[in-house]
């Protein structure tokens, strides 16, 4: 791919054709990623090291932590961010290869429908991620986790584990749910903006 295509692709990703899309890019790229990358590491970075059970043995701690965290929140949210970016990236790659200007996206029906479809895919992916987050992490992190260690062939089957910084993790969970909701609202608003521009209520950029 030539440098011109790469430049058009990067400009399309960083500067979508709608005002709300540009705000979504700023919110998604700056606020959400900064929150996850900086604060997420501070909250979850040493969780496995401080996760302790009774009896406090490495074997038991590792087994119960894997049971408590089938997937770490940082990995889940990082995957969510990458997957949600895919529909928009495909569209802007297509636009770059076809040399489609950003202003043409809102003026030609086919391009507008294609772009709206990519936004709808983002909404669906965010909704699926929201549901998966509920299934994996819930809405609250409890201070005590009850672990089933029967598979270790111990004399006891149930043990209690202490979850470090559970209150901070609860706040972080709520924040990530909030970010997902905000992103979905922005995507819906972007579709509304495109529809209004197509109907002539707003002037195209």
Automatic annotation (TrEMBL):
It is a multi-pass membrane protein. Keywords: Cell membrane, Disulfide bond, Membrane, Transmembrane, Transmembrane helix, Transport. It holds the Pfam family Connexin. It is found in: Cell membrane. The chain crosses the membrane at residues 25-44, 75-97, 109-132, 171-192. InterPro entries: Connexin (IPR000500), Connexin_CCC (IPR019570), Connexin_N (IPR013092), Connexin_N_sf (IPR038359). GO terms for molecular function: gap junction channel activity. Gene3D superfamilies: Gap junction channel protein cysteine-rich domain (1.20.1440.80). Residues 125-194 form the Connexin cysteine-rich domain. GO terms for cellular component: connexin complex. One of its GO terms (biological process) is cell-cell signaling. Belongs to the connexin family. Beta-type (group I) subfamily. A connexon is composed of a hexamer of connexins. This is Gap junction epsilon-1 protein. It comes from Oreotrochilus melanogaster. The lineage of its organism: Eukaryota, Metazoa, Chordata, Craniata, Vertebrata.
């Amino acid at each position: 791919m030539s440098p011109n295509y790469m430049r058009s692709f990067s400009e399309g990703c960083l500067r979508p054709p709608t005002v709300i899309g540009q705000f979504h890019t700023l919110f998604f790229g700056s606020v959400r990623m900064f929150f996850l990358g900086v604060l997420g590491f501070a909250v979850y970075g040493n969780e496995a090291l401080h996760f302790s059970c009774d009896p406090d043995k490495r074997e038991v701690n590792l087994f119960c932590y894997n049971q408590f965290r089938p997937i770490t929140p940082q990995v889940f949210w990082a995957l969510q961010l990458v997957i949600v970016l895919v529909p928009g990236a495909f569209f802007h790659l297509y636009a770059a290869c076809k040399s489609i200007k950003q202003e043409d996206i809102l003026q030609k029906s086919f391009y507008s429908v294609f772009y709206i479809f990519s936004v709808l895919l983002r909404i669906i992916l965010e909704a699926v991620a929201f549901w998966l987050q509920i299934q994996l992490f819930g809405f609250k992190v409890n201070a005590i986790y009850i672990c089933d260690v029967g598979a270790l062939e111990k004399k006891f089957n149930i043990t209690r584990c202490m979850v470090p910084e559970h209150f901070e993790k609860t706040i972080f969970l709520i924040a990530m749910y909030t970010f997902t909701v905000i992103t979905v609202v922005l995507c819906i608003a972007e579709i509304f903006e495109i529809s209004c521009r197509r109907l002539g209520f707003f002037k195209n950029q």
